[in-house]
Amino acid sequence: MSYHLHFRAVPEAEIRDDYTWLEEFMCDAWDDLPAECAAGIADSIEKDFSLVDTLYAAAATLDETENGSGGSESRQLPIFGGRPVYHPDHSQPPLLILTPAETRTAADFLIATPFDALWEAAGAKIRAPFANWDEAEVKAIFVSHHTSLRAFYQQTASAGHAVIKMARY
Questions:
Q1: What is the pTM of this model?
Q2: Is residue 14 classed as helix, strand or coil in its secondary structure?
């Protein structure tokens, strides 16, 4: 079974605050994921997104004056942050929307917080599910997730766009 967290940049004025519309928009975007990722307007993390959130939560243990990571809100924004829009009967996970300002805050956090410091703080916890894997291989996977998210959020923030997130199971 595969599951993903799908991120899509969208001009804020185009977003409808309606679960059905958002779900349809994200499903159409999913069909074009490779092209949209190449264009920098989408990203997706398969299976590891909760562990990426764990990685970013480790910023709480870092000296914020040194790494510029900001408050706890900025750590929460890249993965599970945003305003939830619920399915009418709550039978599906909510979709999440980050405003352009929140997108900028997420981008600033990802740019300012050094990956190696996060890895040092959370790497052991993240490696636990990968006990039989080489540590360098696991670290490379998370470097890739971080690099991809940083580029996505940076480009999205530069364009002044919002972000819609959808969990796909």
A1: 0.93
A2: helix
